[in-house]
Amino acid sequence: MTNPSAPPPSSESPRRAGDWFLYLALTLFGIGLLAIVAIFLTPILSDSDPALWLYLTALLTPLGFIFGVFYALWSGRRSR
Questions:
Q1: Per the CB 3.0–4.6 Å rule, which of 1, 29, 34, 71 could disulfide with 64?
Q2: 53 exposed, middle or buried (CB, 10 Å; 0-12, 13-18, 19+)?
Q3: Which of 22, 17, 19 has the alpha carbon at shortest distance from 64?
Q4: Cα–Cα distance between 23 and 73 in angstroms, integer?
Q5: Angular region, 47: left φ>0, alpha ψ -120 to 50, beta rest
Q6: What is the mean pLDDT of residues 3-31?
Q7: How many CA atoms lie within 13 A of 31 on its CB side?
Q8: Which helix (H) or strand (E) holds 70?
Q9: pLDDT digits (tens, 9 = 90+) for 41-77
Q10: pLDDT class of 16 with cuts at 50, 70, 90
């Protein structure tokens, strides 16, 4: 039996406060992967060495991965 005085369930799920951390992790990881692809494509397409900023941008890949692991550990804990 349902409670007639209860409000109807909303169609959208409530966003948690830490979801921005997941989006940050995915964005950093994606940008880093694009930089890695660009590092490999630069010598093929232009016969020159990749720029230093591409190597530095590629360092965002492990940073995004670490942020993703932290998000998984942080969001997976039980609330008391």
A1: 29
A2: exposed
A3: 22
A4: 15
A5: left
A6: 78
A7: 15
A8: helix 60-75
A9: 999 999 999 999 999 999 999 999 999 999 999 888 7
A10: low
